[in-house]
Each structure stands twice: as C-alpha cells, then as structure tokens.
Amino acid sequence: MNIDDFRYMWRGKQKQVLTAQQADLLTAINIRRKDKKRALLLLHGFSSTPAVYRQFLPSLTMYDAVVCPVLPGHADSIATFAKAKASDWLTTAEQSCQALCEDYQAVDVMGISLGGLLACHLSKQFTLNHLYLLAPALALQLNISRALRLARALKHLGFKSLRNRAGNLHSNQHDELAYRQLPLTTIIEILTLVKNFQFVPPDCPVDLFLGEFDRVVDSPRVAQYFADLPHTQVHWLKNSAHVLPLDGDIDTIINHVRHNWQPGNKQ
Q1: Triad 203, 209, 213: Cα angle to 5°
Q2: S-S: 111 plus which of 43, 49, 188, 234, CB 3.0-4.6 Å?
Q3: Does residue 262 have a pLDDT over 80?
C-alpha cells in the first residue's frame, strides 16, 4: 500500500493527504455479529475505497453482518490499480455475495457508481432480499466510444495516467478518499465494462437513488431503466451530486434503509 497515492477529493480538487494514522480507512469492512439472519454487502466505486461508506456504518447496526470488500486494484497503489481488470471486480463481487448468501438468511446489496453496476450484476446471479443502487454507473454523461478512442490514443502516445477528478459532491461536509491519478489502462477497463454491460431488470425490491447535481452518471437515462418496474422506487436527491454516501442526503438514504428493515414493510 502506498498512502501517498491517495487524496481526499472534493469536486476534482485535492483537499488533503491521507496520513498513516488514517490508513485503516482503506481496509475492507467486515463487521460480523452473533445472528445469521440478515447481511448487507456494500460495493464501493471506481478509484474509490470502502471509506466512501464511513458515514453510513454507525447507522447500520441492525444488520447481522456488514461487508465491503476492496475491489481488485483499489485501496493499494496506483501501480496496482494499473493492472486491475474489470473481470476481477465482477468476480470479487460474486464471491463476496455468494459467501454471505451461504451464511445468512437474507442478503441486501448496496452499491455506489461502479458498485451499483456490480450490484445489478449480482441481482442476476443470486436471490437478493433488497437492492440499494446509489448513482449506478449504468450510463455515463460522456460519450463512451469517443472516450475509449481518446484513452487508447493517449496510451499509444506513451501517456500512463490522468489526474483523477473524483469527489463529485454537492455539499461540503465530507471529501471522497480516492486515487490521485487514474491509469489509462484502468480507465479503458471501466469504460469498456460500462459500454458492454447488459442491464437486466432486477427481480428483487429496488431503491434507486440519483443525485440532481451528478456530473458523472446520466441520471435521467438510468432512471428510465427502472421506469415502471414493479417493486422499484426512484428517489431524486436534491442536495447531492454523485458520491451519495458522503453528500447532502445521507439521512434520506439511511431512513429508507431503516424503513425497509421494519417488520411488515414490503420488501
């Protein structure tokens, strides 16, 4: 792990460095309690870390397990990130979900951005209790084909990385902990994954959260994917951009999770 490869980011600006005392924020989340009834799988976003959920954890004590794996290449070093493959992100999500499904009676999945795309993938592979999608990267605001051509051209010219513009937040309460640079090889991986991903409507109940100020995800297009689907609620967040677990509507998201948890409420 190279902590100098990380920065606290806000609207594309590097706000502060990661100190050695804060390095534990990069580690996987693995909270286990006595019972084996209900678990929550958290999936972080591209170039981000499990720390994106740090404001949620105190409010998730009703779960018997809360797990957030580190996706391959993340939370380590930019050099490691440059070798990451999208197929490994999918495999890690599958393995984490399978382990929870084997040990717990019901499994909820929450994913932000890339994690939201992975959560949709899991809904095709496993019988899930509930899906929480936070600005899932099912459609982006940029032209993916054009961006891929540019990334490959820059790589051919010898460029290795670009400055990360993470931290797309509307509020100024928190910063996103992410890599300060994005390797071109990994940019190509994420763009290719989003471009080729085949969306299948989930069968389980879904809460979809979209930030009104999101500059990353094409939110209206994503909302259309879920329009008129049964057991689906779409929530437009008026005080948030893209990094929803750290933005201005944290309490709104948590309140919906808590409401769905209550006995007798429709899942």
Answers
A1: 145
A2: 43
A3: no
Residue with tokens 């990385």: 161
101, part of any domain: yes
Residue 254 belongs to some domain of the structure = yes
Q: What is the mean pLDDT of residues 229-257?
A: 95
Tell whether pTM > 0.90: yes
Domain that holds residue 220: 3-261
End-to-end Cα distance, the chain:
40
Mean pLDDT of 45-61: 95
Both tokens assigned to 19: 């100190």
Say which residue the tokens 């939110």 belong to: 219
**Predicted pLDDT at 265:** 57
Any idea what the CATH number is for the domain that residue 206 is in? 3.40.50.1820
CA distance 202 to 103: 22
The sign of the torsion formed by the CA atoms of 41, 166, 173, 120 equals negative
Is residue 210 in some structural domain? yes
- How far is residue 17's CA from residue 134's CA, in Å, rounded to a whole number? 26
Is position 266 within any domain? no
The count of structural domains within the chain is: 1
pLDDT of 201: 93
Query: Using an 8 Å Cβ cutoff, are 114 and 89 in contact?
Result: yes
Give the list of residues 6+ apart from residue 66 with CB closer than 8 angstroms, or none: 29, 31, 39, 40, 42, 57, 60
What is the pLDDT at residue 267? 47
